[in-house]
Design a protein that fits this description.
Number of domains: 3
Radius of gyration: 25 Å
Oligomer: single chain
Strand content: 5-15%
Structural class: alpha/beta
Number of strands: 12
Order of helices and strands: EHEHHEHHEEHHHHHHHHHHEEEEHEEE
Helix content: 25-40%
Strand order of the largest sheet: 2-1-3-4-5
Shape: flat
Length: 399
């Protein structure tokens, strides 16, 4: 049995793309060789010998990320030669070439070998293709992040009242809506024997911990403000399941339905501080995958390389200048009518500068301010005040 389903061979200059592929593969239950996931294993090894062993003997497939950098670097060439030795010996498909630049010629790689282009393919789309390739080859994947229906609709999660086990009492207390009952329950989470909990229990704990913070329970709010430090107190796999539950609670309600414009975003900013932390990459990949069907209903998704939400305004020359179009990432969100239920409804009744608009939209839509950009056409100065077109409001993007 191979140790890895997939080994990734790439040049360091292409790491940002490859790292997102690796994170998504982990979330999909793929055993993947990616150097940053193996730092403890590689520490002190004779890398020349160890990497040859991995790429020649230890994987079902090697995905080769081809670029001009890949062709020129020493270590990628060593990995390539090892993978090619395996392919030659086994006389069956083993190397899966993926090209950043299709003009690059790879020594020993026949032009008749099936290949794909990465020019317009996202890392998540490539990961999905790799998963399909594995399944077509008879590999069974048991995703680490497949949670039960009862955990995703936690209104159905079994927590009988009066249960003697600690997890039952904690969940009952977290759901009490009473700060004095919730506070000790929040603290007790981090004293649990994690080895005795399954992933669904940890996931639901994360959901309810986040819910308590959104209900202004002070202990839970403190946990969210110092989340990276708090997660370091518990085993790494438990930390991921707990974080997955928190992210899920932001976007999905107690019945497991997508919240749409009613995101529970009060503390989303605290979760998003972990976007670029490598140890949580699989959690970011998990929530991105869960939100894939709802992309058109969201201004952005959590990402290892934080997404910029761009608002493009078209201004009508008038006194005061009127905003006659607002597009977010290319989608029109300026809608006719007075929608007092929209999170940004106040903007329909006030004047604002571009910076004030950026701040208010970031707050209303739970977007980190440093991920929010606004462009005006024609461009005014920083002090120029605008109004929305009369009878219009800025609404949540709808698919």
């Amino acid at each position: 049995m191979s140790k890895y389903h997939v080994a990734l061979s790439f040049a360091g200059e292409d790491r940002k793309y490859v790292e997102r592929v690796a994170a998504q593969l982990v979330a999909d239950g793929v055993r993947v060789f990616y150097d940053k996931f193996e730092e403890a294993t590689l520490w002190g090894k004779d890398l020349y010998v160890h990497l040859r062993d991995v790429y020649e003997k230890k994987a079902v497939f090697t995905v080769m990320f081809v670029s001009e950098h890949y062709k020129e670097k020493v270590w990628p060439n060593h990995e390539r030669e090892s993978a090619q030795a395996r392919a030659f010996e086994s006389n069956k498909e083993y190397i899966l070439p993926a090209f950043f630049d299709e003009s690059v010629s790879v020594p020993g790689l026949l032009k008749t070998t099936g290949r794909i282009s990465l020019q317009e393919r996202t890392p998540e789309a490539l990961a999905a293709l790799i998963v399909q390739k594995l399944r077509d080859s008879g590999v069974e994947l048991a995703s680490e992040f497949v949670y039960s229906d009862e955990a995703k609709a936690d209104v159905d999660f079994p927590i009988p009242r009066g249960g003697a086990d600690p997890i039952t009492k904690i969940l009952n207390d977290l759901k009490s809506h009473n700060w004095f009952t919730q506070s000790p329950a929040v603290s007790a989470i981090f004293d649990l024997n994690w080895s005795k909990l399954d992933k669904n229990q940890v996931f639901v704990l994360g959901r309810n911990l986040y819910q308590c913070a959104c209900g202004s329970e002070h202990t839970a709010e403190g946990i969210l403000r110092n989340l990276r430090k708090e997660l370091a107190r518990i085993p790494a796999d438990a930390a991921i399941h707990l974080l997955n539950g928190m992210f899920f609670e932001v976007y999905f309600d107690k019945t497991g339905e997508f919240r749409g414009s009613k995101l529970k975003g009060a503390h989303l900013g605290n979760l998003l501080k972990l976007q670029t932390v490598k140890k949580f990459a699989s959690s970011i990949a998990y929530i991105r995958s869960a939100l894939e069907p709802y992309m058109k209903n969201l201004p952005f998704r959590p990402s290892g390389e934080p997404e910029i939400v761009r608002f493009d305004l078209v201004i009508k020359k008038s006194d005061p200048p009127r905003v006659k179009s607002v597009k977010v990432n290319g989608r029109e969100v300026l809608a006719e009518g007075d929608d007092r239920f929209d999170v940004a409804w106040k903007l329909s009744f006030v004047s604002f500068t571009v910076e004030q608009l950026r701040t208010q939209l970031a707050e209303a839509w739970s977007i980190p301010l440093d991920q929010t950009e606004i462009y005006c056409e024609p461009k005014g100065d920083a002090a120029t005040e605008y109004r929305l077109a009369k009878g219009f409001h800025i609404g949540w993007p709808e698919g």
